[in-house]
Amino acid sequence: MNKNEKIKESCKKTRERRKSQVCKVFEVKIDKSHLSREKEAFLRMLFIEAKWLYNYQLSLENPFNLSYKVKEVGVLNRDKQKEKRKLINLSSQMRQALVGRTKQNILNLSKIKKKGNKVGKLKFKSQVNSIPLVQFGVTHRIKNKSYIQIQGMGRRSIRVVGLSQIPENAEIANAMLIVKNSNFYLRIATFLPKEDKIRTGKVVGLDLGIKDNVIDSNGNGYNFQFSEPKQLKKAQEELSRKQKSSNNRYKQKHILSKQYEKLTNKKKDARNKFVSKLCKENDLIVIQDESIAAWKSSRKKGFGRKIQHSIIGGIISSLKNKPETLVIDRYFPSTQLCPNCGSLNKHPLDRRIYNCSCGYSEDRDIHAARNILNEGLKQISMEHRNLMPVERQTSGSFRPKSYLVEAGSL
Q1: CA within 13 Å, CB half, 139
Q2: CA–CA separation, 49 vs 128, rounded Å?
Q3: pTM: predicted TM-score of the whole model, two decimal places
Q4: Do 153 and 132 meet the contact criterion of CB atoms below 8 Å apart?
Q5: Of 11, 65, 74, 189, whose CB has the highest number of CB atoms within 10 Å?
């Protein structure tokens, strides 16, 4: 068996093994307190050389003709003059991944354009913030629970924080080296055996709004507001006073980006905990495909700022990627529809209680969440009924017992 046949056989076995595994990504942080000047300079040069390679590839008449084996690229210096610079720190595997990623981005833009969408083109970058490490054991290696090795550094190891969160039975795949605000991170992709989810028999519908960010069909309300802290506002004021293109302005930008990163991390943490809690407690989550951009551009005073300070958009995007989630059409009249008589009643935003002429009355947001849930259950019922054999279909609609909910009975 030659080399190519061995590679094909190995890839085939890997694909079969992946069917019984689930992918999880863990992020670890490189400990700068144990990072020597030599190691830090090496990591910084990796990203600088990645920028050179990216910009050089875009400058070519045909970016697809660039070979990853290139060891010297043309760069514009401060005087806007072309000069040659050598790629010393980037390994051949890193260069291959970077060149391939740029080619794939161009192909993706072309596919979007062929569908009739308006797209731009890739632009030159002042910095590249990520470098793919595609082959575990070659481009990156875990030495123990505290140290890793990156290709190009020889036997020298780098101390990291967070490796203990990776389970022992995890199969480590590729990784991504990232720089954020002068800090270095490594996102490690792993594959773990699939675990059967414990069924709870519970279902929930979610209505998203401004007054309460999330209301579920059980009447529970959740609010997530992360206003800008004083330190961030002060950093913004300091930046406005700095002279453009000065070193002090560059330093202040770095301080401001750190403050934004802290705020973003808080939002991500709250979003991940809330979505994880929902998925563990419920077998089915029904949401409506809301247009958050339309909410931000609303003429209602304060809507845009409230949306900006919340995590509604992040919750929607995270839930859409979960297998427990069912998304119904955004034009479904969840607020107007009466679950008792089926009539549509428009209510202005300042009326927080939904009333119908048939006598039905309920809190506006809870009413909408229950309508969303029942609409999702109807869709599941129709899917099951259409998939059943003809001889097993009945005159009534089919619903799984664990999802059986009467309209207005919650």
Answers
A1: 23
A2: 9
A3: 0.76
A4: no
A5: 189
The Cα 404–Cα 410 span in angstroms is: 11
Joined tokens for residue 66: 């660039």
Amino acid at 373: L
Residues forming beta bridges with residue 221, ordered by sequence position: 215
Q: Which residue has the tokens 């950093």?
A: 235
296 — pLDDT class (breaks 50, 70, 90): low
Ramachandran region, residue 397 (left: φ > 0; alpha: ψ -120 to 50; beta: rest): beta
Task: Quickly state the pLDDT bin for 298 (edges 50, 70, 90).
Answer: low
